[in-house]
Design a protein that fits this description.
43% of the residues lie in helices and 16% in strands. By secondary structure, it is α/β, with parallel strands linked by helices.
Length: 279
């Protein structure tokens, strides 16, 4: 299966892609404030590329539960210096993590090739940005918004509702003239979902593959890992993240959004080798 992002095409038929998380925010749940200075963020991005990241996902607005929205101007002030420098210093593919079409447009001008939209590409203006730029898009499912999404999320059938939402997002892109091979789908683990909802989605990942597009998984360091493992410290989410990377790859997920590149890359490649050897 192919994923076209501007002037690059990823062939996902054999190896998965690793997307390194680069938050340039003061309040992200895992590393908020750590890479707020542009120089520090650039160095961290380059470190992740050296460790094996195929894509860097750069975000200037926290999407943690309860996060307060920021203006487009503030978001741009955070991400543009980082994007512009990384575009000059690495050939890795750059992705902007934003819900705002105006931010996406400027980020693409600065060197990004992908828009990661937790709003599921529901905004027609965002789809227009993708159409005009030829950028790749990631449509993610979220119930509610970051400030409300964990206020008692409820579903009749979480797997079917998420699949239906992503199917609709893909259809909207098609209707607007965006080639489907530019779009990747993300079930939004941890976004408006309880630990049980997340577990069910992970268990039924192969059902999402019926949509005939690559599936992105982002479980890195998320709180539901503590609920599943019984270990509350965020530092204890490292190995559960790696374990779920292996599991999700076995279930044919194709792109993995992670903070810890080296260990997750090793998990991916070992999983792929073992599956091939046992086929």
């Amino acid at each position: 299966m192919l994923w076209k992002v501007r002037n690059r095409t990823f062939d996902l038929s054999k190896n998965a892609l690793l997307m390194g998380v680069l938050n340039v925010t003061p309040d992200s749940f895992s590393d908020g404030g750590r890479w707020r200075q542009a120089h520090d963020a650039v160095q961290q991005g380059l470190k992740m590329v050296r460790a094996g990241a195929d894509i860097l996902d750069i975000g200037g607005e926290s999407s943690r539960p309860g996060a307060t929205p920021v203006s487009a101007q503030e978001e741009l002030e955070r991400i543009l210096p980082v994007l512009e420098t990384l575009a000059k210093e690495t050939t890795a593919t750059l992705c902007v993590d934003t819900q705002k079409p105006e931010v996406a447009k400027e980020a693409l001008r600065a060197g990004a090739s992908i828009v990661n939209d937790i709003g599921g590409l529901q905004n027609p203006a965002m789809r227009e940005v993708l159409l005009q730029s030829g950028a790749g898009g990631i449509a993610m499912h979220m119930q509610g918004s970051p400030d409300t999404m964990q206020n008692a999320p409820a579903y009749l059938d979480v797997v079917e509702e998420v699949r239906g939402y992503l199917r609709e997002a893909l259809w909207q892109c098609e209707q607007d003239g965006i080639p489907t091979d530019c779009i990747v789908l993300d079930p939004g683990i941890g976004f408006g979902k309880t630990a049980d909802h997340n577990r069910l989605l992970l268990r039924e990942l192969n059902q999402l593959r019926q949509l005939q597009r690559p599936i992105l998984i982002g479980v890195s360091r998320k709180s539901f890992l503590s609920a599943m493992s019984g270990k509350p410290d965020i530092q204890d989410r490292f190995w559960p993240t790696v374990a779920l990377t292996s599991y999700a790859r076995f279930c044919n997920a194709a792109i993995f959004r992670v903070h810890d590149v080296c260990a997750n890359l090793q998990a991916l490649r070992d999983s792929e080798s073992l599956v091939e050897a046992c086929a």
